[in-house]
């Protein structure tokens, strides 16, 4: 086991620190066990339904929870709130072209707005969309537009204990078999996510991306990136892939995106803002269609549901996200938490991914059936223990099969401890690790949950539960 001093991305033995200092603070509130018992019962044992005032350390998501820099806040004052042709839009468009390399940009209120535009524009009923594992909103929009989703991620991604460098890779044989089976003309595009959120923030390699491009190009199939954490992915390529050890993140990102035709983007992740997103494409026809549709669902094509100031903050955030020192500390903080948990033998997905630690709830609760919601149970337990909020990524998130109505039974039954960018300190990570350990020590007492209310769409957000036994 390596010591805490050598962990993270350091080659030498010196400690590292965040490449920023704190200028504004937001006080945290602690609660008593009794208060937490009442709060989680009120929330139907679903951490999404907890008011944030009852949460001490909030690791629900890294989405929109970013701390902005002084530059970004200064940029907010430069908001040009014109209905049409805001200067901030042009700055954002320039920045996206420069860092991601795509020709056209359609702004949206967040990532799912872009997914809606892309899916509605390119998918017809009877189509098939392959992806390197699914993401909840992405797959939802694909299915709603009439497509059948196919998971083409490498098998290693489904094994939480396997330590491999690029568990987000596309399995080329699976993709080739699907093309054979359904025909290229029924595959409007391949959806490639970098990193793969649902697999534990696992990266995809440049070589794999290049190979996917070669294969799909032969069949005339487009590739759309889910680029939400493509800059985090770039750091993994730099660290793990031969030939990129001294390439800048910006150059890696540009090359990576060059193997795709466009992307959907959540500005709430890599771009270091609290809201926003975009669809980017090199395809003139898609651009035309999406720019038309965006006015129905989001807003005019030069704001897409964002305020001018938000677009400005996002443009600045993109330039900050590719700074190496920042990205090393962002991923380094996640690794620090993983190292602490490792010391106590706590089961979590290997290797540590980019944006969080994914606890293996089956490893905590081997005595619970998947239909007793082990991950949902663990997330509730962690809140009760210490006021730490996490998220279920297992059978509840996987939802039901659109055709048969049966529950999907994902091989991964996880609780995600997602680390917001630039928000918490290493001391907070110590507290989180100790809270997880307390749940692990008490694991045999867990009895599981029963679902008492199930919403029709994306049920994990609003489902309610009751303790069993
Ligand atoms: C967050 C996320 C999305 C959706 O973005 P929103 O901004 O939340 O709508 C899509 N894909 C992945 C991988 C994400 O993490």
**CATH C-level of the largest domain:** Alpha Beta
Provide the succession of SSEs: HEHHEHEHEHEHEHHEEHHHEHHEEHEHEE
**Poorly predicted regions:** 1-10
Fraction of residues in helices? 25-40%
**Rg from C-alpha positions?**
21 Å
Overall pLDDT confidence? 95
Structural class: alpha/beta
What would you call the shape? Answer: globular
Q: What is the domain total for the residues?
A: 2
Total beta strand runs: 14
**Helix count, DSSP H or I runs of 4 or more residues:** 16
In CATH terms, what is the architecture of the largest domain?
Answer: 3-Layer(aba) Sandwich
- Strand order of the biggest β-sheet: 2-8-7-6-5
Give a short account of the largest sheet: 5 strands, mixed
Instruction: Find the CATH topology of the largest domain.
Output: Aspartate Aminotransferase, domain 2
**CATH H-level name of the largest domain... which superfamily?**
Type I PLP-dependent aspartate aminotransferase-like (Major domain)
Catalytic activity: L-tyrosine + H2O = phenol + pyruvate + NH4(+)
GO molecular function: tyrosine phenol-lyase activity
Family: Belongs to the beta-eliminating lyase family.
Modified residues (N6-(pyridoxal phosphate)lysine): 269
